[in-house]
Amino acid sequence: xxxxxxxxxxxxxxxxxxxxxxxxxxxxxxxxxxxxxxxxxxxxxxxxxxxxxxxxxxxxxxxxxxxxxxxxxxxxxxxxxxxxxxxxxxxxxxxxxxxxxxxxxxxxxxxxxx
Length: 114
Hints:
The protein has two helices and three strands.
């Protein structure tokens, strides 16, 4: 099993501070598709009546992003990477009430600078 990549070695920029990129290893991604249950949708509908943060949907979005992120890290490790640069999230509706969340970036091999 590949060595897991630490979240500290993931950057939205094109570098990892204090490290130099030895080799780019290609684009990696993690995709998850999520929906809320009928009961969850009912709870969210009730929360919209009072306004404010809709915590049921916030929790769903956070779990989807976390899962996509972890899958991206696994994909990068499978490519022999120890870091990911230029990391981004994207989300798209697949069907009514069903959302795809994508985490993607460039897998790289880095070593300490200097």
